[in-house]
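To whoever is covering the structure queue this week,

Two jobs came back overnight. Logging them here so there's a record in the thread.

Job A:
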Amino acid sequence: MFKPVHFVAAARLTLLVGSLTVAVLTLGPFQGAEQILGLSDKAAHAIAFGGLLAVSFLAFPRMRRNDLMIAALVLGAAVEVAQIIAHRDGNIPDWLADATGILTVYGAGMIETVRKMAREQGDLTFAQIAAMDRRRGRRRQATAFEPAAMEVSMKETGAVVSFAERAAHRFPAR
């Protein structure tokens, strides 16, 4: 029987094959191949990188979507730099087309997040929802160290105390 982990494994395999396909098409001698499908260069970039991001959402369900989006944007920029190195036409408008596809898929994912919030916590403010988020670590209060009272009494008595003993009194073990 199929389980969610089977979809994750299939998505990871699809992401690997898709990434290799995009790398070959963008770096190989296939300049203009997107016209066979009736696409412009910019539309092909947007579809390719938007598709890679959509599959990466399935392939890495425990990673934050923001991190996956940033990784896809960096990958798009790296492809453009690699095209320049490979004596191809790497340029900023191509990267902006990559970003358009990536942001389109990311925006669709955020719409679903807002829909879920509206269903489950519709009467709360965004600040209240963020405060309830289990993924955010609770901050510990800063510990202020005060001079140990024992140091003052040692000075009054004239006892010679080593540095280690003074430090042990000032910073006790938790």
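Job B:
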Amino acid sequence: MSDYYDAFEMSPVPVPGPDAVPPEPFRGIYGMPAFATIPTGDMAASVDFWTRGLGFFELFGITGTLVHLRRWAFQDVLLVSAADAPRRTPAVSFSFACVLSQVDSLVEAARALRPDSVDGPRDTPWNTRDVEVVTPENARIVFTAAKPFDPSSQEAHNLAAIGITPPGAGRGDNGDNGSNEEHA
């Protein structure tokens, strides 16, 4: 028995498909459940790359100290001034959701600013198309777009093997595996 259930209503990420439309940039202030903090030695160059190359916008800044960037809700990055930002790209990465229609333009924009910064796009065994970007601060950022779900695909078999099935495939929204039985 699996504890997984459909909870897509919590996410700003649209249902995957060829016509999926990305949400508008989110300008509200909220308690951030997760965010990346990235040190930079050149705040202006970093903000320029993240905004023009990766599609973020500046939510607010504290001059000389910090710039808070965002794309969709819950996609927050804090660029912080640091005298000695990492010189090497770390093995760890931070991923942001996007939609398939954004992949090509994101690759083009990032490559226009930093030609050797992009790896991909490439398809994954878990049904996404991913693009890896190394930013001016040497952060490894992955943009990941869910592909439309094909129940006969190898990716669907990979997910089913670990207990993840699509909505409506024998499971209710609350993890009850489709049972209509009342629980006391």
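Note for Job B: Residues 64 and 81 are 7 Å apart (CA to CA).

Please reply-all if you pick these up so we don't duplicate work.
Q.
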